[in-house]
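Minutes, project check-in
Item: structure for the 124-residue chain
Input as provided by the requester:
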Amino acid sequence: QVELVESGGGSVQPGGSLRLSCAASADTYTRKWMGWFRQAPGKEREGVATIYTGGGNTVYADSVKGRFTISRDRARNTVYLQMNSLAPEDTAMYSCAAGTMWPGSLDPNRYNSWGQGTQVTVSS
């Protein structure tokens, strides 16, 4: 069982930035796709970005390309989501998830371990 702990959420004004972190247990970080997903009230869960912890391959949703960057720190078993140029429509609960698949996917059904989530609110 993968243990995932997210941090870094908060409130920010439009145009601002936040960095989310997802720390995984050491024995389950290796060779996994670790993704960030978000869910706003009344909406379905949406895949944002995912990264392969082995080779660093990435997949992004079109809605965040050029604004969000996913990265990994293998020494810390941690995945990050740098979010820039945030807009009100980015407001959601952001969750980290891990799964084994190839190629990488933003389909949440492909992930079998989930963190508790961290809230991101973008408003003026």
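Outcome recorded: The chain has no helices and eleven strands.
No further action items on this chain.
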